[in-house]
Amino acid sequence: MDINWYPGHMAKTRRIILDTMKQVDIVIELVDARIPTASKNPDIAQLIGNKAKILILNKSDLADPVENKKWAEYYRSLGYTVLLGNSRSKDDRKPVLNAIREAYREKAERDRKRGIVARTARVMILGIPNVGKSTFINNLCGARRAEAQDRPGVTQKKQWVPLAEGIDLLDTPGILWPKLENQSDAALLAMTGAIKDTILDLEGLSLILVAMLAKYYPEQLKARYKLTELEPKAYDLFLQIGRRRGFVVSGGEVDEERTAITLLDEFRGAKIGRISLERADDVDKTEQEPEA
Ligand SMILES: Nc1nc2c(ncn2[C@@H]2O[C@H](COP(=O)(O)OP(=O)(O)O)[C@@H](O)[C@H]2O)c(=O)[nH]1
Ligand SMILES: [Mg+2]
Questions:
Q1: Together in a domain, 36 and 160
Q2: pLDDT tens-digit profile of 143-162?
Q3: Which of 178, 202, 226 is the last residue of a domain?
Q4: Residue 108 CB neighbours (<10 A)
Q5: What's the gap in Å between 129 CA and the centre of ligand 2?
Q6: Which ligand is nearest to the CA of 61?
Q7: How far apart are CA 76 and CA 69, in angstroms?
Q8: Are 95 and 83 in contact (CB under 8 A)?
Q9: Could you tell me which of 169, 185, 178 has the C-alpha nearest to residue 137?
């Protein structure tokens, strides 16, 4: 797999976001709770400088609850305000508004002391493609505001939407490039659907997925595919699953493409269970990003 896209837009995107940032008080960064570090933009700390920031571990409804808790603790220990998010749930609105108010309180208080009427808190959403930015914005605005424009950058025709007393949200999110430092990040992004299938080797990807599931979620895998034992080698296990599902072509061979697509679809749809593909315990503590 060789994934390399957006490079032509990155400089322009960066410029637009930096420019937009001048009008913003609070940045909400969305990452995918199943792969928090791989779905984080590597340059975000530089982009947002010392603005107040809220990190949402989005799609947490699809991720392992135990890992969600650990990741939230991990990022809190780095000084982030962290929320577990499910952008499709109306229940998310209130905690997000509270976090915004909390993040803005200090500045508003400072202003008040200096006799300045506290200005409305202006909030912007940032995140990589497909992480749930539009869904998040629609959920907060209670209407279909965010256009589905999966292009990097921020559209020129942006608008501030009043969310609640004292809070305005920019209705177009900043779309950032993901961290593609290595093939393993790229594979994680592809498995969760952040990178389009068409540019990927589906079978290679589903073999990596099967190996990870066998290691961390063997019981869920057995339950889903009605297996009593898991073949120890990833490729054998992959074939075992295909056969169990009856994906066999004439001659008795396993239909590998169909097996691969099924495995990826069922993982993405959380049919195998709530799965996290990055583990907080494995995080490389020496690799912490510098925070502004
Ligand atoms: N299960 C789940 N799905 C989500 C969540 N947020 C977004 N999605 C889905 O993820 C897909 C991408 O969302 P979208 O808002 O278009 O992402 P964007 O590219 O960042 O704007 C859509 O199918 C959403 O329904 C979430 O918190 N949980
Ligand atoms: Mg969108």
A1: yes
A2: 545 554 444 455 556 788 99
A3: 178
A4: 18
A5: 7
A6: 1
A7: 11
A8: yes
A9: 169
Angle made by CA atoms 232, 236, 240, in degrees to the nearest 5: 105
Q: Write the pLDDT tens digit of every residue in 226-271.
A: 999 999 999 999 999 999 999 999 899 999 999 999 999 999 999 9
Helix (H, G, I), strand (E, B) or coil at 84: strand
Q: Which residues surround ligand 2, an ion (CB under 5 A)?
A: 134, 148
Binding pocket residue ranges, ligand 1, CB within 6 Å: 58-59, 61-62, 85-88, 127, 129-135, 148, 150
Do 117 and 111 contact (CB within 8 A), yes or no? yes
- Whether residues 139 and 246 share a domain: the answer is no
CA of 130 to the centre of ligand 1 (A): 6
What total of structural domains would you count in the chain? 2
Are both 135 and 174 inside the same structural domain? yes
Which residues fall within 8 angstroms of residue 277, CB to CB, at 6 or more apart?
34, 35, 188, 191, 192, 212
Q: What is the CATH number of the domain that holds 13?
A: 3.40.50.300
Look-up of token digits 């792969």: 35
Mean pLDDT value across the chain: 87
| Helix ranges (DSSP H) in the chain | 7-21, 44-48, 65-77, 93-113, 133-141, 183-191, 202-216, 218-225, 234-244, 256-268
Which ligand 1 atom is at minimum distance from the Cα of 135? 15
pTM flag (> 0.85)? yes
Residue 115 φ/ψ region, left for φ over 0, alpha for ψ in the -120 to 50 degree band, beta for the rest: left
Both tokens of 47, joined, read 């982009």
